Amino acid sequence: MRLFVGIPLAAAVVDELSVISMRLRSDSDGLRWTAPESWHITLQFLGNTPEYACIVARVGELQSSPVPVQLEGLGFFERAGVFFAGVKLTAELGTLQQRVTAATGHCGFIPETRPYHPHITLARSKSKGAKALRELKAKIHREPRFSGFLAREFVLYESVPGAKGSHYEVKEHFQLSGT
């Protein structure tokens, strides 16, 4: 199983991102746009692993209050060919991410060395690469405003490969209800 832990988005945020995506995308833009049902904020990517039971047990032990989430603006990871909506790294979100990586550490997972940069992937470049991202960047004339939300859960997802890219299946829900 190819697994990751993430926060699902509130319906209002999905609606706002859908409007932006529909306005910016075209059939010939050279980008692979992600489906709204796959949008999430990754807390930790785990990759291919047989450690399902350990992950569920350890992550299920986490205690945390609900986490306020606020999207910031649109951005690009140009070297990776990714267009995203940024998420403000609050103390609460950072703490949850650290708790998740500490919990999965008991199952043998090593945290990334790069700083945590929460975001929602909206599109990836295909064959046109940097040119497609430059053209997309030129279409963005003003930063949108986003609704915030209170994340009351996080989820263990399975990434299932398919002909049109991966889709994500929810495997487990974990409630954020107290410290």
Verbal overview:
- With 179 residues, the chain is α+β, with helices and mostly antiparallel strands.
- The chain has a single domain, classed as Cyclic phosphodiesterase (Cyclic Phosphodiesterase, Chain: A).
- The protein has 4 helices and 10 strands, in the order E-H-E-E-H-E-E-E-H-E-H-E-E-E.
- It has a 4-stranded antiparallel β-sheet with strand order 3-1-9-10, covered by helices on one side. Strands 2-7-6-5 form a 4-stranded antiparallel β-sheet, covered by helices on one side. The chain has a two-stranded antiparallel sheet with strand order 4-8.
- Strand 9 and strand 10 form a beta hairpin.
- Helix 2 crosses helix 3.
- The two termini are 30 Å apart.
- The model has no long low-confidence stretch (mean pLDDT 91).
List the helices and strands and how they pair.
Elements: E1 2-8, H1 11-24, E2 31-33, E3 40-48, H2 52-60, E4 67-69, E5 71-77, E6 82-87, H3 91-105, E7 119-125, H4 130-139, E8 149-151, E9 153-160, E10 167-175
**What is the number of strand segments?**
10
What oligomeric arrangement do these chains adopt?
A: single chain
- What percent of residues adopt helix (DSSP H or I)? 25-40%
The separation of the N and C termini measures 30 Å
- How many domain modules? 1
Structural class: alpha+beta
What is the general shape?
globular
Using only C-alpha atoms, the radius of gyration works out to: 17 Å
In terms of DSSP E residues, the strand content is 25-35%
By CATH, the architecture is named Alpha-Beta Complex
Main sheet summary: 4 strands, antiparallel
Enumerate how many helices there are, as a single number: 4
Average of the residue pLDDT scores: 91
Query: Strands of the biggest beta sheet: in what spatial order?
Result: 3-1-9-10
Order of helices and strands: EHEEHEEEHEHEEE
CATH superfamily grouping: Cyclic phosphodiesterase
CATH topology: Cyclic Phosphodiesterase, Chain: A
